[in-house]
Amino acid sequence: MIPRREPVITIDGASGTGKGTVSQLLAKRLGWKFLDSGALYRVLALAAQKHSVATDNEKSLEVLAEHLDVQFIARDNAFPTIVLEGEDVTEIIRTEKIGNAASVVAALPAVRAALLSRQRVFREAPGLVADGRDMGTVVFPDAELKIFLLATPEERAMRRLKQLKEQGISVTLGDLIEELRLRDKRDQERTVAPLKPAEDAISINTDHLTVEQVVEKILQEIDLKKAFPVTSTLATEAV
Ligand code: C5P
């Protein structure tokens, strides 16, 4: 008999489509685990910087990825605390600089292969919401529900600008749009696991939707699919 695997919902999409916040809220609503796969690539980029490994040194990056000493410590109502080699890096990995370096190392096939099993171990009871670029296509191709989030570069840059302003960081909208375009291009054109919807993914345009509205749409899809028994959790869980 084929062993029963824990259910997975994949949420893929480009930067700034709201994947992270949507996935985290959805996981909370369902009472499921949450994987922020982008954080793994960001942590690797930071570790490379820390150990003076160049972002094009595929062999050394592969070794670094295989031995990455990283922990994700779950927190209530917040993204997990991320610890690299004993140091809390939760905030540091969110800069544009690390995001860009992450997308450079993420284009290397050996790095992606080295991080594959680390992502799959997040598949635990009662289920997993996995956020990334290739969750539905490569990491969890057998996921019960696959969502692909879309938003225009302008809308995504506006959201990012708001976040950065709240952190007291000043950047121009034009620069952000340009950076997003470059990162999208790199993520979409790489040879391994490029950013694209899985054939069986449901696309949702988030341009004029709040995070709660996107989560509601996904919950409706779960209801329509009736692929896994989550209804009782949903009925009792407050938003
Ligand atoms: O999602 P986030 O912006 O944190 O991801 C940072 C970078 O990591 C992305 O631009 C992308 O290049 C890479 N990434 C990836 N595959 C994933 C998640 C992230 O290639 N599953």
From the 3D structure, determine the CATH topology: Rossmann fold
Bound molecules: cytidine-5'-monophosphate
| Global outline | globular
Strand content: 15-25%
Average pLDDT confidence is: 90
The CATH class designation is Alpha Beta
- The parts where pLDDT drops under 50 for at least 5 residues are 235-239
Q: Looking at this structure, what is the CATH superfamily?
A: P-loop containing nucleotide triphosphate hydrolases
In words, what does this structure look like?
With 239 residues, the chain is α/β, with parallel strands linked by helices. The protein has a single domain, classed as P-loop containing nucleotide triphosphate hydrolases (Rossmann fold, 3-Layer(aba) Sandwich). It has helices at residues 19-30, 37-50, 58-66, 96-105, 109-120, 135-139, 153-166, 173-189, 211-225, 231-236; strands at residues 8-13, 33-36, 70-75, 78-84, 87-88, 128-132, 145-150, 202-205. A five-stranded parallel β-sheet has the order 2-6-1-7-8. Helix 1 (19-30) crosses helix 9 and helix 2 crosses helix 4 (96-105). The longest helix is centred in the C-terminal third of the chain and has 17 residues, at 173-189. It is globular, with a radius of gyration of 17 Å. Mean pLDDT is 90; it is low at 235-239. It binds cytidine-5'-monophosphate. Cytidine-5'-monophosphate (C5P) binds next to helix 2, helix 4 and helix 8.
